[in-house]
Design goal:
By secondary structure, the chain is α/β, with parallel strands linked by helices. It is built from 10 helices and 14 strands. Strand 9 (192-196), helix 8 (215-232) and strand 10 form a beta-alpha-beta unit. The protein binds S-adenosylmethionine and iron/sulfur cluster (SF4).
């Protein structure tokens, strides 16, 4: 266990989760003066052009000086996800980790293509890794990018004993293979597999309308996964994120240019609600303006998403 800077918020190094089991939502709502986690986009560059990618609009990378400024304004946020675009396209990834790793627990959502050259910095800094994998070869290569490159990256994490989880964006055209995807996650030894419905932004706006399944359909898929999990004794924990009033705005997302948003804010343009700019605003000021505190905290109490 690592004690975070926030009293009572403990990070479990095994499960890669913030442990809040002894704290109620009311206590957290009245005592927290900043978020439990922030997603920071360190680039918009990427090797892939996933069919559903929400983050394809390009903008310049923040410099190391800008990232240091952002870090100073993110003081005492327990966990920061270094995201993108593809974070491992940054040649100065190690220097970026050096800026953030002393004071925050780091998470890395990645397509894993550049995992080999970054393995040491990931391992040395106990960074929890989340790899995008949308199913078997034909499915992943169609909707995301080269399956074999991704799997090569995943094998690097396994070889180096780096715990990882997986994320799949669920489309109607990938639904048929979802139990195979669960089996893959279990066989690869993923601690967690997150299924998420596509948020209509970026490339996802060009998806055929029928690719978006309904909440009702998603819940019935959860039932199928739960049944199969028991039958096949899968050890992986599966979660399913459905976008509704319980998950609305539950993350805080920083663009490369420092603009900071509630995400996904379902009623707003581009599904983001502007809260501030990390060049000038502290995370406490941004938190004050954040209208989705309940959903943010509820997610960490395991109530926002379906857990299987
Ligand atoms: C934008 S990506 C950036 C990190 C990295 N390139 C990756 O793909 O994991 C972060 C996560 O968002 C997911 N994602 C991308 N577009 C999405 C969308 N429209 N709706 C929901 N999730 C999406 C990806 O699958 C990935 O798990
Ligand atoms: S989802 Fe990730 S891997 Fe796919 S295009 Fe977007 S940033 Fe790249």
């Amino acid at each position: 266990m690592i004690n975070t800077n926030l009293e009572n918020v403990v990070y479990n190094n095994e499960t890669h989760r913030l442990n809040l089991s002894n704290i109620g939502i009311d206590e957290l709502l009245s005592n927290l003066d900043r978020p439990l986690s922030v997603i920071l986009q360190i680039t918009r560059n990427c090797h892939f052009n996933c069919e559903f990618c929400s983050e394809k609009d390009q903008m310049p990378d923040p410099s190391l000086d800008e990232l240091s400024l952002y870090e100073s304004h993110l003081k005492d946020v327990p966990r920061i996800f270094l995201s993108g675009g593809e974070p491992l396209t940054r040649n100065d990834f190690k220097e970026i980790v050096d800026i953030f790793s002393k004071k925050h627990i780091l998470g890395l959502p990645t397509n894993a293509v550049a995992s080999e050259k970054n393995i040491k910095v990931i391992k040395d800094n106990h960074i929890s890794v989340n790899v995008g994998l949308d199913g078997p070869r034909a499915i992943t290569s169609r909707v995301r990018g080269d399956y074999d490159f991704i799997m090569k990256g995943v094998r690097e994490f396994i070889k180096n004993d780096i715990p990882f989880s997986l994320t799949a964006v669920v489309l109607r055209s990938t639904l048929d293979s979802i139990l195979y995807t669960c089996q893959m996650a279990d066989a690869l030894g993923a601690k967690k597999m997150k299924f998420v419905l596509p948020i209509p932004k970026g490339n996802a706006l060009n998806l055929d309308k029928c690719e978006y399944i309904t909440e009702e359909e998603a819940l019935s898929v959860c039932d199928r996964i739960a049944e199969a999990k028991e039958k096949f004794d899968w050890k992986t924990v599966f979660t399913f994120s459905i976008w509704n009033e319980n998950t609305n705005g539950y993350s805080i997302l920083v663009y490369p240019n420092g603009k900071t948003y509630a995400w996904p804010a379902l009623d707003y343009q581009d599904k983001v609600l502007l809260l501030g700019d990390l060049h000038t605003d502290t995370i406490e000021e941004i938190w004050e303006r954040y209208p989705y505190k309940f959903n943010h905290i509820n997610k960490y109490l395991g109530n926002g998403v379906k857990i299987i």
